[in-house]
Design a protein that fits this description.
- The chain is of the alpha+beta class.
- It folds into 4 domains: 162 residues, Beta-Lactamase, CATH 3.30.450; 103 residues, 2-Layer Sandwich (Beta-Lactamase), CATH 3.30.450.20; 72 residues, Helix Hairpins, CATH 1.10.287; 176 residues, Histidine kinase-like ATPase, C-terminal domain (Heat Shock Protein 90, 2-Layer Sandwich).
- It is 43% helix and 22% strand.
- The protein has 16 helices and 17 strands.
- The strands form 4 sheets. It has a 6-stranded mixed β-sheet. A 5-stranded antiparallel β-sheet has the order 6-5-9-8-7. The protein has a 4-stranded antiparallel β-sheet with strand order 2-1-4-3.
- Strand 3 and strand 4 form a beta hairpin.
- It starts with a helix and ends in a 14-residue tail after the last strand.
- The protein binds adenosine-5'-diphosphate (ADP).
- Adenosine-5'-diphosphate binds next to helix 13 and helix 16.
Length: 545
């Protein structure tokens, strides 16, 4: 080889090393490698194949050869390089198929860390211009550099891909996800975070997390400043913080933020990934359960202590009770035992409703006598400040439903009307016919219900937070149960109310004659205050027995 060629080759090698180390994009690296290899060895064409996951070689770049002709080299690529006769035959075949005079070939494996990552092939068309051993050495020096560059670019490519996957994962997460750096500044902020905090990503990135997210205590203290779990030493295994965030539109959400911390070799804080979950509903449910337990234990304890008190009094051996006192005492015991039974039944009903819906005994019966019985039973306990009125047409048609369950509904509504009318007043139970339904309403002149509470009172354990909440007994289960029963019978329950003026609770149930007419539309109902609940339990057919 002449001196000039030698120099040119060395220069190329230097140039290529520099270019390769500066390049991380895999396709550019491969094109550069094969272009330089062909130039270096004065080849006609060349190609570079990388080893895929299964170990087979696949062409990734070529010089002076269009991608359409790459498949022609499949057989050559599949032939082990040390099997010279077969390599020659495959080369000859490829040469014919490609219509290219590929007379000589040199192939060099790209080896990185003792693993073959691919092979460079360079071809010459000229007759009698075989590759010399010196050229082989040059190519192998080059191949070493190329193998490193290719491996780095592949690594880089997989890192970029992983990063894209991660970014997509973070973005799609239903939880808020935020990444912070060693100086507590936000470097990544997903869509759920934007919604939670009402802050756009562009405004959040680069700012301190305590400023953007600001999880506060009930009293409004910014816990991210006063009690950040990432600042505590030693760090907890799973640092976590819970509190309120406001989303800018005035909505407050209760969130729990868990952190995965990244530490350096010396334990220094490098950053963290925060997973911020909205647990407002969960918390409300927990609060509801807690208040239910305290209310329920009070509700159950009261009759038990009254029963025990009276029983102890009657059992005293040092006292002589006259018959009237004994009878009065026993009546109190019976009443309280009944109350206890009702409470326990309500509880059982609710848990059954929760577990597998409601089972009804459907049959045809008359509503007015039932309403009459309910008033007769409850009115004597209400007090002289109440008056009661029943309004049903004499020919009120028979209804189809579960009589005992409907009694429970009416009893609950009338009991509530009494309970929530501290100054007494008129309690009216009315019935009318609307299409194929009976509409039964219980109205009072009591404290009424604010619009915001009207949709919630039919929920489990919900009691309106007013002065009567403490003064009256109740567990917030009555209306929940009413709704379950009414809907299981194919009806709807709703309330119309004005605070301070009174409330009217109405519910529908099918008329018995409905069985004869088919597909009749349901009557229109007031939109406000209508609450559809327990959709999954509601059965609109008459076969729900
Ligand atoms: P409870 O009466 O045991 O609390 P309910 O489920 O029967 O539970 O009622 C839920 C809440 O709805 C009550 O706590 C009360 O605040 C409100 N409420 C029910 N009925 C009336 C009514 N007639 N007038 C005013 N408020 C009522």
């Amino acid at each position: 080889m002449d001196r000039e060629t030698h120099l040119r080759q060395r220069e190329s090698l230097l140039r290529i090393s520099r270019a390769l180390t500066a390049q991380l994009e895999l396709d550019s690296v491969l094109t550069l490698v094969i272009d330089v290899a062909v130039e270096l060895l004065a080849g006609t064409t060349g190609l570079i194949a990388l080893r895929e996951e299964g170990g087979q070689l696949q062409i990734r770049a070529a010089t002076n050869m269009s991608p359409e002709s790459w498949p022609i080299f499949d057989a050559l690529l599949a032939t082990p390089l040390d099997d010279r006769p077969r390599v020659q035959a495959a080369l000859h075949q490829a040469s014919l198929s490609a219509d290219l005079p590929l007379r000589h070939m040199t192939a060099l494996p790209l080896v990185f860390r003792h693993t073959s990552v691919g092979v460079i092939y360079v071809f010459r068309a000229a007759v009698n211009l075989e590759f010399t051993a010196e050229e082989g050495d040059l190519l192998s020096a080059f191949a070493q550099q190329a193998a490193i560059a290719v491996s780095n670019a592949r690594l880089f490519q997989s890192v970029v891909r992983e990063k894209q996957h991660l970014a997509a994962l973070i973005e799609q997460s239903a939880d808020g996800v935020m990444i912070i750096d060693a100086r507590w500044r936000i470097t990544s902020f997903n869509r759920a975070m934007e919604q939670l905090t009402g802050t756009e990503r562009s405004a959040a990135i680069g700012r301190p997390c305590a400023e953007v997210v600001g999880i506060t205590s009930q009293e409004g203290i910014n816990l991210c400043l006063s009690d950040c779990p990432l600042q505590r030493r030693p760090l907890a295994d799973e640092p976590v913080i819970a509190g309120w965030v406001s989303s800018g539109d005035g909505r407050r959400r209760y969130v729990q933020s868990r952190y995965a911390v990244q530490l350096g070799a010396n334990g220094e804080f490098l950053g963290a990934i925060a997973n911020v979950r909205d647990i407002t509903l969960q918390r409300a449910e927990e609060a509801l359960q807690n208040s239910f337990i305290s209310v329920m234990s009070h509700e159950l304890k009261t009759p038990v202590s009254i029963i025990k008190g009276y029983a102890e009094m009657l059992a005293r051996e040092d006292a002589q009770w006259d018959l009237a006192t004994i009878r009065d005492g026993l009546h109190v015991i019976i009443d309280e035992a009944d109350r206890l039974t009702r409470q326990i039944n309500a509880l059982l009903e609710v848990s059954r409703l929760h577990a597998d819906g409601m089972r009804l005994t459907l049959r045809e019966w008359a509503l007015p006598p039932l309403a009459h019985q309910v008033i007769e039973r409850l009115a004597p306990h209400a007090g002289p400040q109440f008056s009661f009125e029943l309004r049903f047409a004499d020919d009120f048609p028979a209804v189809m439903g579960d009589e005992e369950r409907t009694r429970t509904v009416l009893e609950n509504l009338v009991t509530n009307a009494i309970k929530y009318s501290p100054d007494g007043g008129m309690i009216r139970v009315t019935g009318r016919v609307a299409g194929d339904d009976a509409v039964i309403a219980v109205s009072d002149q009591g404290i009424g219900i604010a619009a915001a509470d009207q949709a919630r009172i039919f929920g489990r354990f919900y009691r309106v937070d007013n002065r009567l909440r403490r003064e009256t007994q109740g567990a917030g289960l009555g209306l929940f149960l009413c709704r379950g029963i009414v809907e299981a019978q194919g009806g709807t329950i709703w309330v119309e109310s004005q605070p301070g003026r009174g409330s009217r609770f109405s519910f529908t149930m099918p008329l018995a004659r409905r069985q004869l007419s088919t597909d009749a539309p349901l009557p229109a109902r007031p939109a406000s205050g209508v609450v559809r609940l327990l959709e999954d339990h509601a059965s609109h057919g008459s076969d729900h027995v």
